[in-house]
Amino acid sequence: DAKTTQPPSMDCAEGRAANLPCNHSTISGNEYVYWYRQIHSQGPQYIIHGLKNNETNEMASLIITEDRKSSTLILPHATLRDTAVYYCIVRLLMNYGGATNKLIFGTGTLLAVQP
Amino acid sequence: GAGVSQSPSNKVTEKGKDVELRCDPISGHTALYWYRQSLGQGLEFLIYFQGNSAPDKSGLPSDRFSAERTGGSVSTLTIQRTQQEDSAVYLCASSGRLGSTDTQYFGPGTRLTVL
Question: How far is A109 from A1, CA to CA, in rounded Å?
Answer without folding.
Answer: 17
